[in-house]
Fold this sequence. Notes:
Elements: E1 4-9, H1 15-23, E2 41-47, E3 50-56, H2 68-82, E4 85-91, H3 98-110, E5 114-119, H4 127-133, E6 142-143, H5 152-173, E7 179-180, E8 197-202, H6 209-217, E9 235-241, E10 244-250, H7 263-277, E11 281-287, H8 294-305, E12 309-315, H9 323-337, E13 346-348, H10 357-371, H11 377-390, E14 403-411, E15 415-420, H12 428-441, E16 450-455, H13 463-467, H14 471-478
Amino acid sequence: MSFTLAIVGRPNVGKSTLFNRLVGKRLALVDNQPGVTRDLREGEARLGDLRFTVIDTAGLEDATDDSLQGRMRRLTERAVDMADICIFLIDARAGVTPVDEMFAEILRKRSAHVFLAANKVEGSAADAGVIEAYGLGLGEPIRLSAEHGEGMNDLYSALMPLADEFAKRTEADAPETDVSIDEDETGFRKPTKSKPLQIAVVGRPNAGKSTLINKILGEDRLLTGPEAGITRDAISVQIDWQGLPVRIFDTAGMRKKAKVQDKVEKLSVSDGLRAVKFAEVVIVLLDAAIPFEQQDLRIADLAEREGRAVVVAVNKWDIEDEKQQKLRDLKEAFERLLPQLRGAPLITVSAKTGRGLDRLHAAVEQAYDIWNRRVTTAQLNRWLTGMLEAHPPPAPGGKRIKLRYMTQAKTRPPGFVVMCSHPDKMPESYSRYLVNGLREDFDMPGTPIRLTMRSQSDKNPYKERKKSTPSRLRKHLSKKVPRS
């Protein structure tokens, strides 16, 4: 998905109908009664060859208090802030109302890309409303009939230039992962100012993520406080961190899915997950008082499954009394609960005082270096021979699996290919044995390692050659030689 599109407008102008048209399903409830939609609803939209995320919002009303309408309005404004593009939908038959004029002014200030669309344009009754729409100062209105699918080509033409722009931005921001390498390449990319190392700081609410980043920045750039859940966007800040060019993403706290009821929080968590995918190194920040809760484990596992280098940081260490015993308990719990990240750095920090930030910086650099690690084919095959001698592969059905040779195909994270017979019968336990050996013997602790078994047939290379031997020669070779 290259961009996010929010559909906004007064109640009953056809926002949910347009949403259903773009996603190709009746996901949103549609009725003639105004105010049916109250929550934000996301969907995967298709328009020609465009693929994007579309958000259906509650109808904008002139209410700013804590009433239901006021809360719905704040939620819609939140979606406008988070979306890349907004479609401001009006009812062409009703014409432009004073509320439309007020919200058009708000959208001009809050969104960089706003398209005005006049819906329900079937028939001549809508012509006057379309002409009035020019007065909103949002450019030429796109004539639509969301119910009948009219005007979709015009909407496509309006979105296409921006879609290309956002696709380029996404490509530029996306980290290089699963980089294929040749024998002579190192696969290592040193971070530069134009292409900095991308770091996402993730964790549960109130773990101290924004405070930690402010301390790294040396200024109070991000809003902090004792309340949980202050951060809602995945905000990125680019700095030079002790000589290392980095872009740090501050993400919203991620709670268990069952506890996430607020629609803004759902949007925020989804934005945080996107930040993990755009990072190269993920700092999983724990609260020293309640470390390794279920949600912490899920967040760390997500980073590992995405193939990102992981650093675990334990915050609020300055208020911990029994530091030595606590550290031993943390390391034991880490080894037991996150075996897939065995050997990943575990750093104790205090975001409030700044203690431990030097160790965190060194751990991030080390994790990034290991994530780019390259091992030559000759080294790998000498190592594989020793591993096979120490612990031969199993023999399912009495036929032993033969591992012939091994090579590294990718970096970021390290990916290895083993050519063998019957790869489908290789048990998971033996693959783990090889992965653990790679971690230990080639100094790759903590980083995700991808190991792929590929089939190599047992064909006799001389079989075809035998068929091509001339018949007279075959007869001569088959004759018995008389004994002398």
